[in-house]
Amino acid sequence: MTEDSQRNFRSVYYEKMGFRGVEEKKSLEILLKDDPLDIEKLCTFSQRFPLPSMYRALVWKVLLGILPPHHESHAQVMMYRKDQYCDVLHALKVIRFISDATPQVEVYLRMYQLESGKLPRSPSFPLEPEDEVFLAIAKAMEEMVKDSVDCYWIIRCFVNQLNNKYRDSLPQLPKALEQYLNLEDSRLLNHLKSCSAVSKLPYDLWFKRCFAGCLPESSLQRVWDKVVSGSCKILVFVAVEILLTFKLKVMALNSAEKITKFLENIPRDSSDAVVSKAIDLWHKHCGTPVHSA
Questions:
Q1: pTM
Q2: pLDDT digits (tens, 9 = 90+) for 91-144
Q3: pLDDT for 224-258, tens place per residue?
Q4: What distance in Å separates the CA atoms of residue 31 and residue 34, rounded to the nearest whole number?
Q5: What positions does the domain Rab-GAP TBC occupy (predicted)?
Q6: Where are the alpha helices (DSSP H) in the chain?
Q7: Among 17, 47, 14, 41, residue whose Cα is nearest residue 29
Q8: First vs last Cα of the chain: how many Å apart?
Q9: What radius of gyration, in Å, describes the C-alpha atoms of the chain?
């Protein structure tokens, strides 16, 4: 039996026995021993499987370019990242833009604004829509990543990825949502159209904020594994699955306002199932990456 077939046999066995994550964790640990790290294989792993929580921050930092592929550089690079973090933090305190009482997510926002040349003249200036998006993502990330330096850098690079890499793709997601919902449940789509709700769905919450504030962090991080590793299209399938999961409730509502209000505050107790089904739906329509550990 070849090494690949042995691995496939073990994967099937573990899954049948209810230990699906065991083999995946071992496979990731093998990938993380590579030096230099193979970015393509780490991306593919993250696309295929949920990342174990103990390795998530490390993998995200590598995929987002916060850490380089070479292990020997990690400690020194993170020292530079920490120094930069402290310098920016100190600067904001000197100009009295933040204080010890400033909420941490707002600190992250002001740091990001200063580094990107978008710091307003006064902290009392009203927030821009893009600032609200940043705060929503930061609040969710703060629950996932406990170290403040790691957290800031991951938020910073995650938001930059949305604004740069996915800049042209994100505006196309509402159209893709309509396309895939039509394939999965045309009757549900027709109901949304008859209520004039298609254009009023909570697209900013779903796509600009990547479901931050909509899904609990325990479910959200599995979606963000896919976003970080190269697919913003996963967001479409999470939205489709939310609509399918709550179809009966949505079909019972007869106005765009009521439908949108409900979708902005969906019950959180079913979010794990929603995300699992969304990932299956994504693989169904977009295929599964061919690389494996």
A1: 0.89
A2: 999 999 999 999 999 999 999 999 999 999 999 999 999 999 999 999 999 999
A3: 999 999 999 999 999 999 999 999 999 999 999 99
A4: 6
A5: 50-231
A6: 3-16, 20-33, 39-48, 53-63, 74-94, 104-115, 129-144, 148-163, 173-184, 186-194, 203, 217-228, 234-245, 247-252, 256-264, 271-286
A7: 41
A8: 17
A9: 21
